[in-house]
Amino acid sequence: MRSEDIAKLAGVSRSTVSRVINNYANVPEATKAKVLRIIEQYQYEPNSFARALAGKRTDTIGLFAISMNERENASRIYQNSYFGPIVDLVVDTANSLGYYVLIHTVYSPGDFQKIKQAYQQKRIDGGILVGTQKDSELVREMVGQEAPLVLIDYDISEIMAERLNKNHLAVINSMDYEGTVHAIEYLIGLGHRSIGIMKGRMSTFSGRERYVAYEDTLRKHGLPLQEEFILEGDFLKETAYQEAERLAVSGIWPTALFCCNDDMAISAMEAFTAHDIRIPDDLSVVGFDDVELAGRMNPKLTSVKLPIHEMATAAVEKVIALCNAEESAFSTLSFPTALIVRESCRELKEHE
Amino acid sequence: MRSEDIAKLAGVSRSTVSRVINNYANVPEATKAKVLRIIEQYQYEPNSFARALAGKRTDTIGLFAISMNERENASRIYQNSYFGPIVDLVVDTANSLGYYVLIHTVYSPGDFQKIKQAYQQKRIDGGILVGTQKDSELVREMVGQEAPLVLIDYDISEIMAERLNKNHLAVINSMDYEGTVHAIEYLIGLGHRSIGIMKGRMSTFSGRERYVAYEDTLRKHGLPLQEEFILEGDFLKETAYQEAERLAVSGIWPTALFCCNDDMAISAMEAFTAHDIRIPDDLSVVGFDDVELAGRMNPKLTSVKLPIHEMATAAVEKVIALCNAEESAFSTLSFPTALIVRESCRELKEHE
DNA sequence: CTGAAAGCGCTTACAG
DNA sequence: CTGAAAGCGCTTACAG
């Protein structure tokens, strides 16, 4: 069934059929109704490729999850508590707005090609980029393509430094700096003076923000930065486990440990527990993200909640707005975090 | 940059360019190399829509997650521990095989349209259907379309009953019956005689299988089916919580409860704990699926592991084989489950 | 208000 | 081995 067939059946031309499908103004109600009836009756659907080829939208957005460091694992984004929800949320939001979503994960530099191809082959109207390793070069290239693009978790200053037209670009962030300050000051308020950190991946905007906020806050409160309590977790479960174990074995540790994401916090707690370091009695732990597991484990993890729902929703709305040229200015949105206090931190007594 | 441009640059015709892109046999190496060099140099990518329109593959598969009962929630598949991993695994597998994946969730009968459209508009080469409510009518309709289709968790006998050509169809299941028998017999082996069940959604193949296996096994071992210990959890967390709470309040409960998925098992445990019923001291619990949380909670949940990784991978491989017409017979694959014993069940003493 | 025609960028018989 | 041409199914100026 092609538009030609519908045209014949309705006694009009293909042009008219196309006009009613695309809801043009200058079609009389009667003609419109007639055509619509036939379309309905035969359950006709215009071929999306032909439409796209003739210059129409594809009604699909791309979602690209970049996870360069986790190549080895068989199931990869799957292993990460951060991507799963983002993917699901983006799909749900886009679908409910009438868009399909085309997904591709990238684990190696070569996979980047797939992103470019999706744009060049015109498979999508616009795209969303999440994940680590969104290096400037890639972004510059994408921005150069003039296709709608939304970046989640990206350093705005890096973009501002580029001399490009970025009217089809938007950036969505969470207020990680503030969230981290909040968490550290909460620990300080509980009486902690010796606070360590399990760092995230520093190639990431959020990884850097969280670390800098940690340093700033300690400094602001006149607390020392202790090299030996700065662990390199890289946002990864396994790495965090090893780092925590190393600390446990060393025999000395801080009274509190701020972890730059929950995956690492949870792994660290497992490592500590395995070495008979009790949480929160012997060590207080705070995480970041507030994944589902945080509220279900034992002890329940105190964590900074990432506004992941808002971020994913906003990302979808932004690309769509950009695709429809409803918006044409570079925009940036940052959503607030919230400290969710649970059971993994304890108050230090005066003399401790 | 179009194939025409490449042709000019290479000093050949569009036909030849097309032939080298599609790797036709009858192009001399020299010509091929020349064309390839230009393509490489200009980073040319053929327009995917034009190709598809001219009869080529789209190189994308559809993934449709059906979740009709969970309409209300803001973030829906997201809430379900089953879909997330499937989505991620399918995307990962398909991507690594060079396919894009187009995702759409369906929450209402109207959303079904989207699935049909994706096929009719030729957006995908083939598709995978997961989730509940895969009613015969839908399947009949899809099978009628002659497009490659893989069904995950579906009753084969229902398909066999249809008088359709199903050479573009495949079904992927897990051996839930055996898995359930295994779990129930494990409980019986621990000395349990009073075993309840938290049922899944009965509109689902796996929901029915697990329930039937439960009944059969009790019967086989001469144990009574106690109406009051048969709970309707519907595979949903909230429903399961309420049902468990109802049981707790009633004052009498079985010595063991088999839950048809982990989401329900975990919620039930929370409800019991809230009512001072200790797991496993006062009540043993077994789940199904073996989601990540199962091994991380306290006490750790004993559960039947769903071969979700194998299922997702097989589903992708099947659709692709079907798309490439490498396979043309109706096929069905069923993967084994495994009982993962942890801490949520205890042995009953002789006199209990 | 509406139809005939050109065009979107490919692929693939058809000739040669 | 390779080019000219038709065709895939739409949309959209262009005329009228």
TrEMBL record, chains A, B:
**Magnesium keyword on record:** no
Q: Which GO terms describe its molecular function?
A: DNA-binding transcription factor activity; transcription cis-regulatory region binding
Which superkingdom? Answer: Bacteria
Q: Which PANTHER family match?
A: HTH-TYPE TRANSCRIPTIONAL REPRESSOR PURR-RELATED, LACI-RELATED TRANSCRIPTIONAL REPRESSOR
Task: Supply the InterPro entries for this chain.
Answer: HTH_LacI, LacI/GalR-like_sensor, Lambda_DNA-bd_dom_sf, Peripla_BP_I
Instruction: Give the species.
Output: Paenibacillus antibioticophila
Q: Supply the alphabetized keyword list.
A: DNA-binding, Repressor, Transcription, Transcription regulation
Q: Where is the HTH lacI-type domain?
A: 1-55
Q: Which CDD domains match?
A: HTH_LacI, PBP1_LacI_sugar_binding-like
What is the designated name of this protein? HTH-type transcriptional repressor ExuR
